[in-house]
From TrEMBL:
Domain PA: 137-224
Family per similarity comment: Belongs to the peptidase M28 family. M28B subfamily.
Cleavable signal peptide: 1-20
Name of the protein this chain belongs to: Poly(L-malate)-hydrolase
Domain Peptidase M28: 326-510
Record has Hydrolase as a keyword: yes
Organism in which the protein naturally occurs: Physarum polycephalum (Many-headed slime mold)
InterPro entries membership: PA_dom_sf (IPR046450), PA_domain (IPR003137), Peptidase_M28 (IPR007484), Peptidase_M28B (IPR039373), TFR-like_dimer_dom (IPR007365), TFR-like_dimer_dom_sf (IPR036757)
An annotated Gene Ontology molecular function: carboxypeptidase activity
Record keyword Signal present: yes
Keywords from the UniProt entry: Hydrolase, Signal
Transferrin receptor-like dimerisation domain span: 574-695
SUPFAM superfamilies cross-referenced by the UniProt entry: PA domain (SSF52025), Transferrin receptor-like dimerisation domain (SSF47672), Zn-dependent exopeptidases (SSF53187)
C-alpha cells in the first residue's frame, strides 16, 4: 500500500448540512450483521506470519481466501495465477568508513523481533523492491524528502551529486519518485530512512512512546516498499508491457531506467541513519540545510556532503514470479451491471493494518451479505463482484493484470469500484474518490453512527464538501485510470497519512489489537459503509451516480490548472474550448441527474425518461468517456505515459501518491512545452464533449 499524501479527505469536523435518506430494508438488516469478533478472527489468520507476494505463505492465504469466498456463498470463485516480474535482495551492506577504509559504523539492516512480534529476519529482509544493483563508496549528501525542489536546492547551491550517495527521509512523495530524481540528478545510490519527526517519537513535534509501549515507529523499524514508477505504469514492469506503458516508441526499450531505477536503493531505520546524518552535520564546510529540512534527531541537520565515506552494496535478483489473485461473485438477478469491492492481500511483513485489516473487512462484508440473503431471501438486482488482489505491494500488479485481462468485459459491466486497502489504524475516516460518488457516499454515511460516539453519524465529522481526487498507490488505479470506472478508497488512520509502523514487521496483529483498532469498531464501521454502498449500487432502480457535482468540480479543476500553468510556464493560452466543454457538461449533467431524481422519487420511469435501461447505461458509461481513447478504442493515453487514459486525473508525475488534475496539460509544464499545453487543452475539451454525448439521450443528440 501507499503512504497517503497530506491532501487526503478527512472526516474530522462538523458537516454544515443534514441528509434525510433512510436505509432500505436489506441495508438496515445488513447494518446489524458485521461482527468485530469475526473481523478479529480473520485478521488473526492473515497476520500469523509474513506473506510477501509470491511466497508460499502468500499462496496459502490465497487458498484460505478462496475457501472463505466459497463458504460465504460466492459464485465463480477463481484463484487467478498471474506471472509477473519482481526482484529480491541477494546482498545488502551499509557502512560508514574513513577514507583509508577503516569502518566506523556497520548498519544492522534488520528489525529486532519482539515478544509481541516474533519472526525470522532472514525470511523478511528490509529492502526496496526494484532497486538496481550496485556497489558505491563515496561521500553522502542529505536531500530532505528527495523532491524536485530539494534536489534543485542542492544543485543551485553548488552540491555536485554526480557519483555521490544521497540520503533522503520518507514522506510526502512516493519513494519511487525519490529514486527517479536521485538518478536524474546523477546520484550513484540512494538511502531512504524513517525520520522520527514523521512517524516516530517526535511526530508532529510532540514526544510519543514508541512500539511496543506506544503505537509509534521504534528506532530500528524500517519502511519497506517498491520503487516501480507507477506514475508511468502500474503493474508488472516487464519487457512485454513497455509499449503499452509508455507508447510504441518505447516498445523495444529496457524497463530498467524507464519503469524502475538502475541505481542501488536501500531503506533504513533512523537508528542506522543517525551516525550518517551526524557525520554530515559534523562537516564544518558542509552546506547548511533549510529549517524545513530539520528532522526529529537531536542535532542540526546539514545538506553536506559528509566528512567520511559511505559504502553501499545492494545486489538484486530480477526474476519471474507467480502471484495469486482471487475473485468471486455474489449473484444478482441480472449480470448486465455490477459493482466491484476489492482489497489487496499481499503484505510487507505480517500486514496488520496494511492490508489485512482491509482483508478482514472484505471477508466480513461477504459473510454479512450471505447472512442477509439466507435470513431474508434477499437477492440483489445486480451482481456484486469481490477481488482479493495480490502483488499490490510490488506495484499494483494483481489488480492491474486482472483489469487488463478483462478490459472489454469490465468496461461493459462495472458501475463502480469500492477499494479498501489499509482498513483501520486510527480514529479518522479518510475517503477519496471520483466526484460522481459523493452524493451516494454522503447518503449512506449520514445513516451510520460514528464508532466512537453513537450519538453522531459519520458525516458529523466531515470538514470537506468534496472528495479529494484519486492519485495512486492502491488498487483503484487500474479501474479509474485504465478502465474509467467510478472509484473510491476508504480507510481510517491517525492522520491523513499511513499508519505509524507502515510496511514494517511491527504492523502486526498485536499492534492492531492494542493500537490500530481496539475492539475492531472502526473495522465494523467500514464494513457497514462499504457493504451498504455495495447494496445501494446493486439494488437501486437507478445507478446512484451524480454528475452535477462532477460539473462543479471540473470548473474548479480548470481554475486550478490555469493557476498551475500561470505559475509554472506563463504564456498566452486559449482555454475557451475547455471552458465551453465544461459548460456543456454542466447542462448535460443537470439533465441526466433530473431524470434519475424523477425515477427515484416516483419509483418508475414513466414520465421521467423514455427508457430506464438506456438511462442506466448512460450513467454507467459516462466515466468511461473521460478516457482519451473512449471513442477510438486506440491505445492512446496521456503524453509520455500511455497506459494512463483518464483526461481529468492521474498520479502526479513528480509526486506519485497525490493526484494531478488535467495531467496532459500539466505534462506541458514539466516538459517546458507551451505547444503541448495548448494541444492538451484541446484534447481535454474534446474528451469532455465525449462525456456530454454519453450523458445525453440518443434521441436528443445533435
Amino acid at each position: 500500500m501507499h503512504s497517503r499524501s497530506a491532501c487526503i479527505f478527512v472526516l474530522c469536523g462538523l458537516l454544515p448540512f443534514v441528509l434525510g435518506t433512510s436505509l432500505s430494508g436489506p441495508e438496515q438488516t445488513f447494518f446489524n450483521l458485521p461482527d468485530p469478533a469475526q473481523t478479529r478472527e480473520h485478521l488473526q489468520y492473515y497476520t500469523s506470519s509474513p506473506h510477501l507476494a509470491g511466497s508460499q505463505r502468500d499462496y496459502e492465504t490465497a487458498v484460505y481466501t478462496h475457501d472463505k469466498f466459497v463458504e460465504y456463498g460466492l459464485s465463480d470463485v477463481v484463484i487467478h495465477t498471474q506471472h509477473v516480474v519482481a526482484n529480491f535482495p541477494l546482498q545488502r551492506e551499509l557502512e560508514l568508513r574513513k577514507a583509508d577504509g577503516t569502518v566506523l559504523f556497520t548498519a544492522g539492516l534488520y528489525e529486532p523481533p519482539l515478544v509481541e512480534d516474533p519472526y525470522d529476519p532472514a525470511e523478511d529482509p528490509t529492502f526496496n523492491m526494484f532497486s538496481g544493483s550496485g556497489t558505491v563508496t563515496n561521500r553522502i549528501v542529505y536531500a530532505n524528502y528527495g523532491s524536485l525542489d530539494d534536489f534543485n536546492y542542492l544543485k543551485n547551491n553548488g552540491v555536485d551529486l554526480k557519483g555521490a550517495l544521497v540520503l533522503t527521509r520518507y514522506g510526502p512523495t512516493y519513494r519511487g519518485i525519490k529514486a527517479f530524481l536521485a538518478e536524474q540528478f546523477g546520484a550513484a545510490g540512494l538511502l531512504i530512512y524513517s525520520d522520527p519527526q514523521q512517524d516516530g517519537f517526535d511526530a508532529g513535534g510532540v514526544e510519543h512512546p514508541v512500539y511496543p509501549e506506544g503505537k509509534w515507529r521504534p528506532e530500528l523499524s524500517v519502511q519497506r516498499g517498491c520503487l516501480v514508477y507507477w506514475q508511468y505504469c502500474p503493474g508488472s514492469p516487464s519487457q512485454e508491457r513497455m509499449g503499452l506503458c509508455l507508447g510504441e516508441e518505447f516498445a523495444d526499450a529496457s524497463p530498467a531506467g524507464n519503469l524502475y531505477p538502475t541505481i542501488p536503493v536501500l531503506p533504513i531505520s533512523w537508528g542506522d541513519a543517525y551516525p550518517i546524518l551526524q557525520d554530515i552535520a559534523n562537516n564544518p564546510n558542509g552546506l547548511a540545510a533549510p529549517s524545513t529540512w530539520q528532522g526529529g534527531l537531536n542535532f542540526t541537520y546539514k545538506a553536506g556532503p559528509s566528512v567520511n565515506q559511505v559504502y553501499l552494496n545492494v545486489q538484486m535478483n530480477t526474476t519471474n514470479t507467480t502471484i495469486w489473485t482471487v475473485t468471486g461473485t455474489f449473484r444478482g438477478q441480472s449480470s448486465n451491471e455490477a459493482v466491484l469491492v476489492g482489497n489487496h492481500r499481499d503484505a510487507w511483513g505480517k500486514g496488520g493494518s496494511d492490508p489485512s485489516s482491509g482483508t478482514s473487512i472484505l471477508l466480513e462484508i461477504i459473510r454479512s451479505l450471505r447472512v442477509l440473503a439466507n435470513t431474508t431471501g434477499w437477492v440483489p438486482k445486480r451482481d456484486i463482484y469481490f477481488g482479493s488482489w495480490d502483488g499490490e505491494e510490488y506495484g499494483i500488479m494483481g489488480s492491474t493484470t486482472w483489469a487488463e485481462d478483462n478490459e472489454v468485459f469490465l468496461k461493459d459491466t462495472l458501475m463502480a469500484y469500492l477499494n479498501v486497502d489499509i482498513g483501520a489504524c486510527g480514529p479518522l475516516l479518510n475517503i477519496r474518490g471520483t466526484p460522481n460518488l459523493l452524493n451516494v457516499i454522503k447518503d449512506v454515511a449520514s445513516q451510520i453512527p460514528d464508532p466512537s460516539d453513537s450519538t453522531k453519524k459519520l458525516t458529523d465529522f466531515w470538514t470537506n464538501d468534496q472528495l479529494v481526487v484519486l492519485g495512486s498507490g492502491s488498487d483503484f488505479v487500474p479501474f479509474i485510470d485504465f478502465l474509467g470506472v467510478p472509484s473510491v478508497d476508504f480507510y481510517y488512520s491517525s492522520s491523513p497519512g499511513a499508519n505509524e509502523v507502515y510496511h514494517s514487521i511491527y504492523d502486526s496483529f498485536a499492534w492492531m489489537d492494542q493500537f490500530g483498532d481496539p475492539g475492531y469498531i472502526k473495522s465494523v464501521a467500514l464494513a457497514r459503509l462499504i457493504g451498504i454502498l455495495a447494496i445501494r449500487f446493486a439494488d437501486d432502480i437507478v445507478i446512484p451516480l451524480n454528475f452535477s457535482n462532477y460539473a462543479g468540480q471540473l470548473q474548479t479543476y480548470l481554475t486550478t490548472i490555469q493557476q498551475q500553468v500561470a505559475t509554472g510556464l506563463p504564456g498566452t493560452y486559449d482555454y475557451s474550448p475547455l471552458q465551453n466543454a465544461i459548460t456543456q457538461f454542466k447542462t448535460a449533467a443537470a439533465a441526466i441527474d433530473g431524470e434519475a431524481a424523477c425515477v427515484r422519487s416516483s419509483g418508475s420511469a414513466t414520465g421521467c425518461t423514455s427508457d430506464l435501461n438506456e438511462l442506466n447505461r448512460r450513467l454507467q458509461i459516462a466515466e468511461r468517456s473521460f478516457l482519451i481513447n473512449s471513442k477510438t478504442n486506440s491505445s492512446d493515453g496521456l503524453p509520455k505515459r500511455n497506459w494512463h487514459k483518464h483526461v481529468v486525473q492521474a498520479a502526479g508525475i513528480l509526486d506519485g501518491y497525490g493526484a494531478q488534475i488535467f495531467p496532459g496539460i500539466a505534462q506541458g509544464i514539466v516538459d517546458n512545452n507551451p505547444a503541448l499545453i495548448q494541444q492538451q487543452i484541446g484534447r481535454a475539451a474534446d474528451t469532455i464533449l465525449n462525456v456530454v454525448e454519453a450523458l445525453t439521450p440518443a434521441g436528443s443528440k445533435k
